[in-house]
């Protein structure tokens, strides 16, 4: 097992296990995003000769509690930096030449929810944790690329309305019923074990990684086309920032 700063990357045969470490809420500060991106570069470089799969999980109560807004809303430059880094990370995941699985063992909110949705499969513990698009509740506008990802992952307009326009706190069993969570498990360990089993099943298909990534890029073309800009960053002024910070 090797450390990438705020996360670790372990290789088990042809399975890469990326773990966000520590007991914090794993907010997507540029430092954490950089650590994840560095791990993905290693995954990409070490998976060229055989079929592989990536599992992403996290220690503690949270999978990821979203953007580090208290850091970002200090000024517009920070907002732009964080947005750019997250969009690059999303692109890295969508173009990764292997199946990807999010083992969601705790809460995943806002951009943390988006991070989970960028994986091909979501497995989730059912005894604790929820998926939550919190932007409506905290008064933070959703970028077009968030919307494009939601459309790619959630085929039903009714589900999209529940998740985005009602800010539902989606449990594992609700997510399975809605169709974007693949399975629900009794605890964190069971969720990771099920993810490893799924990863091994996918690896056994021995798919060509380049072809796999190409198929995914076709399915997510609307998302990829929207990653070049973030129209809500730059329009979010001091007054709006203060209102959002007051709700955190």
From TrEMBL:
Instruction: Name any one Pfam family assigned in the record.
Output: ECH_1
Which PANTHER family does the record cross-reference, listed alphabetically?
ENOYL-COA DELTA ISOMERASE 1, PEROXISOMAL-LIKE, ENOYL-COA HYDRATASE-RELATED
* Protein name (database record): Enoyl-CoA delta isomerase 1, peroxisomal-like
